[in-house]
Amino acid sequence: MNRCIIPPAAAAVLLASFAPWALAGSNQTEASSNMSSTHITQIELGAPPKTDIRPFQSASLSLTDAIRIAQQQHKGDTLEVKFEMWDGQPAYFIRASERHEIWEGRINANSGQLIGQPRTFTSNQITHALEQKANAARRTHTSLAQAVRNAEQQQGGKAIMAKVQVDSTGKANFDVDVVKNGQLQVAQVDASTGKAG
User: Fold this and answer.
1) pLDDT of 6
2) Count: domains in the chain
3) Which domain holds residue 19?
4) Which region, left, alpha or beta, applies to residue 27 given φ > 0 means left and ψ of -120 to 50 means alpha?
5) In a domain, 164, yes or no
């Protein structure tokens, strides 16, 4: 597995360039059936906005706390989780799948309370790419929460974003972005072994 350390100047550019990841402040969603593949790619590659790092570092709850809370609301496989500012509140956006449905919701990063009403999408409302992630996540031996813990331990920082990625063969891996000493580090976790690299 590869590890990439992004210098602060490059991280700032990345953080500012890809703010639209997974509904950050908009009503667009990967689950929209009419979304273009270009937009989906931009969402997939995105990183949290630069302004979200300071509130993230002082958030009471971790990414794994948010996953645990979300799973109490909706059982299934967590596909994506990321920190963001939502309506002035520090929050975690979470996307999970269960029985061919996708659940999306936000959890306050300090209180653990749901923000607003979660949304559920049926299999005919989601993109093929999202359906592939859900199918691959069901077949893995490692959960996203385990991948986050392993990446945090290996990197020595606090995860700000994690997601299931699917390669061209349909195999799942996890990308986990970890903040350490104000720098963003990207770890890849093998979904079969749980090892972070």
Assistant:
1) 52
2) 1
3) 9-141
4) alpha
5) no
In a domain, 175, yes or no: no
The reply to whether 99 falls in a domain is yes
Overall residue count recorded for the chain in this entry: 197
Q: What are 122's strand-pairing partners?
A: 101
Q: Contact at 8 Å (CB) between 130 and 30? A: yes
Note the pLDDT of residue 113.
92
Predicted confidence (pLDDT) per residue in 148-184, tens digit: 999 999 999 999 999 999 988 888 899 999 999 888 8
Stated pTM of the model? 0.71
- Residues ≥6 apart with Cβ < 8 Å to 176: 147, 148, 151, 152, 159, 161, 162, 186, 187, 188, 189, 196
Q: What is the pLDDT of residue 36?
A: 31
Residue 124 inside a domain? The answer is yes
The parts of the chain modelled with pLDDT lower than 70 are 1-52
Write the CATH number for 78: 3.10.450.40
Can you read off the two tokens belonging to residue 99?
Answer: 């029985």
